[in-house]
Write a structure and sequence with these properties.
It comes from Vallicoccus soli. This protein is an alpha/beta fold and about 500 residues long. It contains 16 helices and 15 strands. The protein folds into 2 domains: about 260 residues, Rossmann fold (3-Layer(aba) Sandwich); about 160 residues, P-loop containing nucleotide triphosphate hydrolases (Rossmann fold, 3-Layer(aba) Sandwich).
Amino acid sequence: MPHGTTSTSGTTRPTPRSTARPQHRPAAARTTYGRRPAPRPTGPDPLEQLFTASAEAFDATAELPSFHDLGLPQPLVTALERRGMHAPFAIQARVMPDALAGRDVLGRAQTGSGKTLGFGLPMLTRLAGGTRESRRPRGLVLVPTRELANQVRDALGPLGHALDLRLGVVVGGAPYSRQIEQLRRGVDVLVATPGRLIDLLDRGEVRLDAVEVTVLDEADYMADLGFLPAVTQILDLTPAGTQRLLFSATLDSGVRRLVTAYLRDPAAHAVADATSHVENMEHRAYVVRPHEKLAVLAEIAQRPARTLFFARTKQGAQRLADQLVEAGVPATAIHGDLPQGARQRALGAFAAGRSRVLVATDVAARGIHVDELDLVVHVDPPADHKDYLHRSGRTARAGTAGVVLSILLPGQRRTAAQLFDRAGVEADMRYVAPGDELVRELAESGEPVVVKEEPRRSSGPRRSGPRRPGGRYRGERSDRGERGERSEHRGPRRPRADAA
């Protein structure tokens, strides 16, 4: 076993129960969970102990090996160097040896730690030189949202070209025709959201019997969105004994069952525990009067750098974006009520710098991965400390510094203090008003955004036919993943100074 890795040997797996199609996987090899809940463990959690041991064994001061030293093929190393990447991040250096060796992997790392390359580079390496077949991908990456699928494609697609590997993406909210066309041409790695992949399996447009490597990215988020039944159905259609890698920020009951049922003696890797925060992330809390909240937010939003605001509800996110625009700030909103095209345009404008301010809900922001983002503002503090950490993790990525600001009303101080304590962060609370020095400091902070040119729109054919509300075509399952977003169910919007 490689140095510094841990194993889950001896874990009892539940009795197999099949929901699979018999032509894809022998019945004896299928695994899923029984109907009876497993008894709650009375002692220390074995998986958490493995992660803790792995994190403690990690030497942050040790020199990391190069990509070449890790055994990646030279064309891939060259492609990485052309993109300015010469050495792996910590999670990549820890995961890659086991992943390259074909072991199952259970991984946990901080947001922005580079886990996409941690599973992607070994997958590309192991699939290089194989035969591409129509409708039969050899690598599968399951993700919870369209935005994250696009992020994985953008990160791995150019690297796959260096090894003559083709990546495909199938997600809800996009026309079937183009996705079916790419599957028929053949892809080596398929990045998919569960609902759309199930649709394509039902239509017979894709088979999973040739899959050699399967990755579950952000498995805890898929569990939160209720995708685990689809995930287990998909996993049961992949061949038994093939490699599986699972990455999750937490090990709640649904994710734990996935690990037990589908990972064989995995190597567990973590460079931080589930609730740790990034060291170069500064946490602040400003307490404002209700009637001055919008003015403080608008002043901060005037800063020259990108700023990501978090609202608790879809209506709250859209309302704040509209109010900021009325105040002269070029802001856009992203939430579950927006059609897929509008969400992609909003993300693209924010990433390219054409819009410096983005207002998002928790769910919609999961696909936001912008390296040059140094300020996250919690307009509405979340109820759960995990949501606070997930939100905050949009900044201070890849070794950069960032500030996380919570805007509080006087009556929220005690609840916020408890939230910070559970999240393991220290945030000094200060009373502020519009124009105060602390507010001006943030409003003037950050490097001006360099605006990238807007890409030309595709002139390809558009999908025709009846559409359902929300931008979906008839017969299409939704992977929107916004069922976790709250709706205020209010009447017509009224202009209010404290409505942020």
